[in-house]
Design goal:
The protein is an all-alpha fold. The protein has 6 helices and no strands. The radius of gyration is 17 Å and the shape is elongated. The relative contact order is 0.15.
């Protein structure tokens, strides 16, 4: 059985993951509006991952005999000043989510809830990949600055993105790739 304290924290994280999905959909919509379909595709893939993350929290709460308490999802921003600003916001957001996951791990340890701590390890690993992925795009966009040709090259590159290997493995039941 799951404690009330852990249940509440996991429900809050479920909401945070759903918000992340909304945020990345808003970013995808921004890029669609700007004609940057590759960046839109990258963000749409990110949104799918975040909604998958929220479903993992939902299922875990249920599997532990807890009660899922869905909360209102805050509206994300809808406009940015540049592709770099979008990806910088995404990077800040992923850093925030990493902090939330780390706090959950600490809570699980403090509550001596080994099942929750083990469950959260998948997210610890996933956040390393999330931060690295968005950080790489931020770095490239900083290098090219306002060069339109460079933005279009990165847009094309980002258009081939698929969901992360960790998420793909979880969706298919295949073993996760080695780090």
């Amino acid at each position: 059985m799951i404690s009330d304290k852990i249940q509440s924290a996991l429900n809050n994280q479920l909401n945070a993951e759903a918000y992340s999905g909304y945020l990345y959909l808003a970013m995808a919509a921004y890029f669609e509006d700007k004609g940057l379909r590759g960046m839109a595709r990258w963000m749409a893939a990110q949104a799918r991952e975040e909604f998958f993350h929220s479903s993992k929290f939902y299922n875990f709460i249920v599997d532990r005999g807890g009660r899922v308490n869905l909360q209102a999802i805050e509206a994300p921003p809808a406009d940015w000043t540049s592709p770099l600003a979008v990806f910088q916001d995404a990077q800040k957001h992923e850093e925030k989510v990493t902090g939330l996951i780390n706090s959950l791990v600490s809570l699980a340890r403090g509550e001596n809830d080994h099942a929750t701590e083990i469950f959260l390890q998948w997210f610890v690993t996933e956040q390393v990949e999330e931060e690295a992925s968005v950080g790489e795009v931020v770095q490239k966009l900083r290098i090219i600055g306002q060069d339109g040709q460079g933005v279009l090259m990165i847009d094309k590159e980002l258009g081939i993105r698929v969901i992360s290997p960790l998420v793909a493995a979880a969706l298919t039941g295949a073993p996760a790739p080695a780090a």
